[in-house]
């Protein structure tokens, strides 16, 4: 009798075990199916974050003052599952053309903390009010971030005058390529996201004018650095950073546009016009052979 009861208990336990295993297996399959759709959704959210630029990416507070972009975080998460990376994540076209075997970030794809002029406040308000003390603290932090980024850049052989000469040449080159509509060379001088925006501008311009004359009168009237920022992409390796320098250009330019018959429809190539531009240049400090590229522009209308 006792033996029969023991066999009955064993049978019940074994049956329960099978049901539990089948339930867990079913849950595991459901979970696997759900996970297989995650990268696609994350790619879309990453893209939307990049379109919102600085609003989407918080910076890491600390002595290094670096930022980990959402794209880098996503890639680090999925790097633990080789299958998901190889089947879902796609490398940029440039990386695939070079035969890269893994996803490589060629640019963060956004401007980190875009420069905007600070509203001036009086000496009395700055030093004798609570709001003034808070504003002074914020101003100091902003300046320290720029100082730290420039110091990091100097260790890689940065020279202010050399960079300014290179920036002016790049400024002139990009504007000339825009005027001639040379997209092949333009692609090498700007980041991927910036190229997409400039390509659209060229298409719109060509729909209005058949040909454009653009010329910059040298030397430039003024050039100065407004902001410098570092963007870290690996919290375990602080040497893997991008740097962005925001420059203000004040130049004299000549412009003239023509229709399909060669008639002048806009501008005058004889007149010199004073133009103010604020451009953001970007460079990787960990990719061999990296060079400065235009990654964004800030509208001068935001300036007083």
TrEMBL record:
Q: Does the keyword Mitochondrion apply?
A: yes
List the record's Gene Ontology CC terms alphabetically: mitochondrion; ribonucleoprotein complex; ribosome
Sorted alphabetically, which SMART domains does this protein's record hold?
Tim44
Q: Where this protein primarily resides, as one coarse class?
A: mitochondrion
UniProt cross-references to Pfam families, sorted A to Z:
Tim44
From the Swiss-Prot or TrEMBL record, state where the protein is found. Answer: Mitochondrion
* UniProt keyword list: Mitochondrion, Ribonucleoprotein, Ribosomal protein, Transit peptide
The segment(s) forming the Tim44-like domain are 144-299
Q: Does the keyword RNA-binding apply?
A: no
Family affiliation = Belongs to the mitochondrion-specific ribosomal protein mL45 family.
Q: What is this protein called?
A: Large ribosomal subunit protein mL45
Organism expressing this protein natively: Carpinus fangiana
């Amino acid at each position: 009798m006792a033996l029969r009861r023991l066999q009955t208990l064993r049978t019940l336990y074994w049956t329960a075990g099978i049901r539990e295993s089948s339930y867990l297996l079913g849950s595991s399959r459901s979970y696997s199916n759900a996970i297989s759709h995650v990268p696609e959704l994350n790619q879309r959210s990453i893209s939307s974050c990049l379109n919102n630029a600085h609003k989407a990416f918080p910076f890491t507070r600390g002595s290094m003052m670096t930022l980990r972009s959402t794209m880098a975080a996503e890639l680090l998460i999925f790097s633990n599952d080789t299958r998901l990376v190889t089947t879902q994540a796609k490398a940029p076209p440039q990386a695939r053309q070079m035969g890269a075997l893994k996803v490589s970030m060629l640019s963060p794809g956004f401007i980190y903390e875009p420069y905007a002029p600070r509203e001036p406040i009086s000496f009395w308000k700055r030093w004798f009010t609570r709001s003034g003390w808070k504003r002074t603290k914020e101003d100091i932090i902003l300046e320290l971030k720029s100082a730290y980024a420039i110091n990091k850049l100097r260790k890689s052989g940065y020279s202010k005058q050399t960079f300014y000469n290179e920036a002016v040449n790049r400024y002139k080159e990009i504007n000339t390529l825009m005027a001639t509509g040379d997209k092949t060379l333009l692609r090498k001088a700007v980041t991927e996201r910036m190229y997409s925006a400039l390509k659209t501008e060229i298409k719109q311009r060509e729909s209005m004018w058949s040909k454009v004359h653009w010329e910059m009168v040298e030397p430039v009237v003024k050039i100065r650095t407004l902001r410098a920022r570092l963007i870290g992409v690996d919290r375990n390796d602080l040497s893997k950073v991008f740097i962005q320098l925001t420059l203000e250009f004040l130049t004299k330019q000549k412009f003239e546009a023509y229709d399909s018959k060669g008639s002048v429809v806009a501008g005058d190539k004889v007149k010199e016009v004073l133009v103010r531009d604020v451009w953001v240049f970007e460079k990787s400090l960990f990719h061999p052979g990296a060079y400065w590229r235009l990654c964004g522009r800030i509208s001068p209308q935001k300036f007083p």
